[in-house]
Amino acid sequence: MTEDVFTALADPTRRKILDLLATHGHGTATTLAAELPVSRPAVIKHLGVLDRAGLVGAHRHGREVRYVVRPERLQATAAWMARLAAQWDARLAAVKALAEDE
What we know:
It is a single chain. By secondary structure, the chain is mostly helical. Helices cover about 70% and strands about 10% of the residues. The protein has helices at about 5-10, 10-25, 30-35, 40-50, 70-100; strands at about 55-60, 65-70. A two-stranded antiparallel ribbon has the order 1-2. Strand 1 (about 55-60) and strand 2 form a beta hairpin.
């Protein structure tokens, strides 16, 4: 688990890019920019952040670079968050039990 995943997911435009890629299966900076209120160069910068975080992968298809979601990092992040939530649930249950015993 690294900070770069959370940094990447903190931005609403990057989350929208991930949503679009998940919905369409793949996309280019041009096709993504057509569906977003930001420019193509801005989309390219956002894709770079997502790529460095391991959330998207890129492959060249002719003259285009197509991006796809890499679900492994999202799944690892979700699993980490679930483990953390379970630990807190156990701690809160222990506090509740102590409070009810008194």
